[in-house]
UniProtKB/TrEMBL annotation:
This is DUF3464 family protein. It comes from Aquirufa aurantiipilula. Signal peptide: none annotated. Keywords: Membrane, Transmembrane, Transmembrane helix. The chain crosses the membrane at residues 32-48, 60-79, 91-118, 130-148, 160-176, 183-203, 223-242, 254-271, 299-317, 329-349, 355-372, 393-411. It comes from the Bacteria.
Length: 432
């Protein structure tokens, strides 16, 4: 019975973060990734249904959001192109590079989420020290890997992945040194899931292109990253030991709330709902040019964000406690707004040309249903087995090699493919 509960819980979180990450494809960068990460984090809290976690819910959610959002600085357009090549060495390199990038998304996202779960007055996490160490790690890794050794993953694109790798290394050492083994376990499984999901998603994208089915297979790749990353983060959480805390009294959490409902959404709006972009997405859907509709989308979206943000701040300013129903209402509203903004920016309210936008709604309905069916998960106390994890890691790398062979053999030259090996790569091209 517990296995069935666990599987249903993993499916629910996987679909949640998968759908949110697919929506993130319309917005990109750190802000889009952070919003998606927050949604996946809420789903885990709802399934866990622990009062001590509800008491610090927004602190946990913003930790997951920031963790998943950090990876948004990484560029991966070139490595996706390597996965579309016809030579095994280039395809495998592309899929392994995506495994690294997706793994960094998940490792930091799962790690900060896990640390926030275990943070308490008895066992406090030294956040300032951790942040300083992560910044130093980013600087050192980028300096040596990129500046000194010139181990470039995505030439001529930005190589920020090296800095993120330094952050992940510092985070791992911090968790190991402070004996935060449960948080480390969450990070490792979220990283393994996110890495596999990104590589597998690129494989699906290539096969989708070969099939010539008219669909947004780039979005399929994004969904895959979130789906498997969410499963990994949930599995790490539900199979780890967490101390029961007596701290169940809700305390005001202004900064996390402000970040979640105003700062991140407004940043996303400012970066995406620009008139030049709206002209490209909405004008082609109109029979005649009508700037009024584009202006309406631009400013109505901001009003939606402000209304929702002020509403949530007002509601939780008056709250004296948080329970399951409070978190679920926030989950539905926060997720629903993210989905609505995606429909607005793509012009899907004017045309059905973006069918994946309506699949988000279907996924959302299924997720709400699954949450109503998911029983409170029974936590399993599994230790961190390095041998088992190493075997799983090796199996994933071998499986990715099989995917690379199939992908390389499935097509001739296709649009958007790149070669990392076999031809000279211009390294001095300006960054995009």
């Amino acid at each position: 019975m517990n296995n069935k509960k666990l599987l249903l819980s993993l499916l629910t979180v996987g679909m949640t973060l998968g759908t949110a990450w697919a929506i993130r494809g319309q917005f990109g960068h750190e802000h889009g990734a952070a919003w998606a990460g927050s949604i996946g984090s809420i789903a885990i809290l709802l399934i866990a249904n622990r009062k001590d976690w509800f008491a610090k819910a927004f602190q946990i959610i913003i930790s997951g959001a920031m963790g998943w959002g950090i990876g948004g600085v990484m560029s991966y357009g070139m490595v996706v192109g390597y996965g579309r090549d016809t030579e095994f060495v280039n395809v495998y390199y592309g899929l392994i590079s995506l495994f690294v990038i997706g793994g960094l998304y998940g490792f930091i996202g799962g790690g900060l989420f896990g640390l926030s779960l275990s943070n308490s007055s008895k066992n406090p996490v030294s956040w300032p020290r951790l942040l300083v160490e992560m910044v130093v790690g980013a600087i050192l890794f980028y300096f040596f890997i990129i500046q000194q050794y010139e181990w470039l993953m995505t030439p001529p694109r930005d190589e920020s992945w090296a800095g993120v790798l330094g952050m992940a290394a510092a985070l791992a050492w911090f968790m190991f040194r402070t004996k935060q083994y449960s948080a480390l376990r969450v990070a490792l499984f979220a990283g393994l899931g996110g890495g596999f999901g990104f590589a597998f998603g690129n494989f699906l994208q290539v096969l989708g292109h070969v099939s010539e089915i008219k669909f947004n297979f780039w979005n399929v790749m994004e969904y895959s990253l979130g789906f498997f990353g969410g499963i990994g983060m949930a599995y790490g959480t539900f199979t780890s030991h967490w101390e029961d805390s007596t701290e169940t009294q809700y305390s005001k959490q202004w900064f996390p709330m402000l970040m979640l409902v105003l700062i991140i959404p407004i940043t996303m709006w400012q970066q995406n709902f620009r008139m030049d972009r709206l002209e490209k997405t909405i004008t082609p859907l109109l029979t005649a040019s009508d700037q009024a509709i584009e202006l309406s989308v631009r400013w109505d979206s901001l009003l939606l964000i402000l209304f929702a943000g002020i509403y949530w701040l007002n509601v939780h300013a008056k709250s004296k406690s948080l329970d399951y129903s409070d978190i679920k209402k926030f989950f539905i509203g926060h997720f629903g707004l993210y989905m609505l903004l995606s429909i607005l920016i793509t012009g899907a309210f004017l045309s059905t040309y973006r069918i994946e936008q309506y699949l988000y709604i279907l996924n959302f309905a299924i997720i709400i249903y699954l949450l109503s069916r998911a029983e409170e998960v029974v936590f399993e106390n599994q230790s961190l087995s390095w041998n088992t994890y190493a075997k799983n890691f090796g199996i994933v790398l071998a499986f990715i090699a099989v995917l690379a062979y199939i992908a390389a053999s499935s097509h001739d030259e296709i649009k958007g493919s790149h070669k990392r090996f076999g031809e000279e790569i211009p390294l001095e091209t300006p960054k995009p």
